[in-house]
Specification:
Length: 567
């Protein structure tokens, strides 16, 4: 190749690199035993929220309709596409700008070689593809399908166009099956949007579906009758429960699917039990040198360090090694020796975590930086058990609101968030379980648009020679906290509530209540051991009027919407 041609070739390569930027995934899932033995790591590129804003970047609102398919409609689509359709309904998103619809989008899944991958397709008002983006890819090979230079091939194609591999769409080596099924999935989305939105054949049906946009308001501005839906699932080693009010089961099903997908994503981000989670890999890498850290994970760690400062080290995400020494990870308690504790305490300190910014090489105009994490002590490990569930609750709330849910309650192992109110009520009623009576209540309080977190020795403890040892350990001494039975924090977000409930528990009655009173938008209840009366309860100044203690003289107990126990 001549010098001139080589220069031209280099320029072309540079331009392509600038135009078609490569999407960098966050690895958020570990090896699976489900399906074929092709170990994979789920590559999460975008959340649903991020994907919608990518395809509708300039819109004021993003609304959605749930389009249920009758047997006849499903059969007609299958005949048109010459393939089987497994969906019984589609969620169609609409980008709104200045009150006008700018386009439509559908998030769907197709099976690659072994596993489903998730992607979004947006279509303009002329029925032509505008943008495609991959949300999650789950195969061990073929992730090049997520690159923008590949996906750009679909732009401008409509239902009238043929979309064939190696004719209309260039194949990707190692991802042939994914490319084939994406072509089919794109055709499916084009057909659904054309049939129900662009053809004009189903205007009556779509007009009626407008009543359930956001799930709570019809076309006249009148509130619909909302129905109660509940769903629970195990995640992060415990039970996650969602209670929502929605217009119908289609909205509820779609919402639950999105919420639980988000919770599972966070589990693989922050789990210290899964060997290939993002956090587990960070714990391994940061012990020897500064390790690049996932942006979202870095944010959670930085928030954790802030709460460590606020609580004078009573809250500390490096507590993990101490938990192991006391046997709580294996659910078999033991009392470690003094020398053993002293050695472990050297690795337990939030001050051992060093977070810095590092500039990386990039062809972009603006410099690109990434956060790095380094442990000053090689035995230091991060455990987000004291804040991770709270963060997950906040993320779940964001997903609920994105789905148009206006009234819901999330409960994740003693971390809850309420927003809106149940139909016909002014607030949610929260019951606080008695620490020593499984069926008894200490009392109740009413909240709205607030997070609540309770830390306590209710369930995780062991007894040796008549002494009770709680799983909540003071990271400064290495010993389980004594005297405090439970701490309940009420504040504006679940991340803060989760961290503070643990920190206040460790600080104790006086210092803990003092911190609560100092912090704005934070209220709390501390249950402690009293040598004279057994257990006593102290509420912060703002909670005293809200908290109604149960007693023998109570004529009528309020039935709570949720009963909280300390985790």
């Amino acid at each position: 190749m001549g010098t001139k041609n080589a220069s031209v070739y280099s320029i072309i390569i540079l331009i392509l690199a600038l135009v078609f930027e490569i999407t960098t995934p966050s690895y958020a899932q570990t090896d699976t035993d489900d399906g074929p033995k092709d170990n994979y790591i789920s590559q999460v590129y975008l959340t649903e929220e991020q994907a919608l804003h990518e395809v509708f970047p300039h819109c004021d609102k993003i609304l959605f309709n749930v389009v249920p398919l009758t047997k006849e409609e499903k059969s007609q689509l299958q005949n048109k596409l010459r393939r089987k359709i497994y969906e019984d309904f589609f969620v169609v998103y609409m980008g709104i700008k200045s009150g006008e619809v700018t386009g439509y989008a559908i998030i769907t899944e197709e099976i690659g070689k072994f596993h489903p991958y998730t992607f979004i397709v947006s279509v303009d008002l002329k029925g032509k593809i505008d943008k495609i983006a991959i949300l999650v890819y789950r195969e061990s090979r073929g992730s090049d399908i997520a690159k923008k230079r590949f996906l750009y091939q679909f732009k401008g194609k409509s239902l009238k166009n043929k979309i064939r591999i190696n004719r209309d769409i260039i194949n990707i080596s190692g991802a042939t099956m994914s490319v084939v099924t994406m072509c089919k999935g794109v055709k499916k989305i084009l057909a659904v949007i054309d049939e129900f939105y662009l053809s004009g054949k189903n205007t009556d049906k779509i007009a009626s579906l407008e009543k359930i946009k956001y799930g709570y308001e019809d076309g006249t501005g009148q509130k619909q009758e909302l129905k109660l839906f509940k769903k629970a699932s195990l995640s992060m080693g415990t039970l996650f429960e969602a209670t929502i009010y929605a217009a119908d089961k289609y909205v509820a099903e779609k919402t639950f699917n999105d919420v639980f997908q988000e919770i599972n994503r966070l589990d693989y981000l922050m789990s210290n039990y899964k060997k290939k989670s993002v956090l587990s890999e960070l714990n391994n890498d940061a012990s020897t040198e500064p390790a690049d850290c996932n942006k979202e994970l870095a944010s959670v760690i930085e928030q954790s360090l802030q709460y460590s400062e606020i609580t004078d080290g009573a809250f500390d995400i490096t507590i993990g090694p101490l938990m192991k020494k006391w046997g709580f990870f294996k659910k078999k308690g033991r009392i470690p020796g003094k020398e053993e504790l002293a050695s472990t305490l050297e690795s337990v300190s939030y001050k051992n975590i060093i977070i810095e910014e590092k500039a990386i090489k990039s062809l972009a105009k603006n410099p690109v930086t990434v956060k790095t994490v380094f442990f000053k002590n090689p035995d230091t490990r991060i455990d987000l058990g004291g804040i991770g569930k709270g963060y997950a609750v906040d993320r779940a709330v964001s997903v609920l609101k994105l789905n148009g849910i206006s009234s819901a309650l999330i409960n994740f192992a003693g971390n809850i968030y309420t927003f809106g109110t149940p139909p016909g009520k002014d607030s949610w009623v929260i019951g606080l379980q008695h620490p020593r009576k499984s069926k008894g209540l200490l009392g109740t309080f009413e909240i709205k648009d607030k997070a609540v977190s309770t830390s306590g020795d209710y369930e995780k403890f062991f007894t040796i020679e008549g002494k009770r040892y709680s799983h909540i350990i003071d990271p400064r001494t290495g010993h389980p906290v004594k005297g405090i039975v439970s701490v309940t924090i009420v504040t504006g977000n679940a991340t803060r509530a989760d961290a503070l409930s643990t920190g206040v528990f460790v600080l104790g009655l006086e210092k803990g209540m003092g911190l609560i009173e100092q912090l704005p938008d934070v209220e709390g209840i501390i249950v402690y051991e009293d040598t004279d009366s057994g257990l006593s309860t102290k509420a912060s100044s703002g909670m005293q009027a809200l908290f109604k203690e149960n007693n023998e003289n109570s004529q009528k107990e309020t039935t709570p919407d949720m009963i909280m126990s300390g985790s």
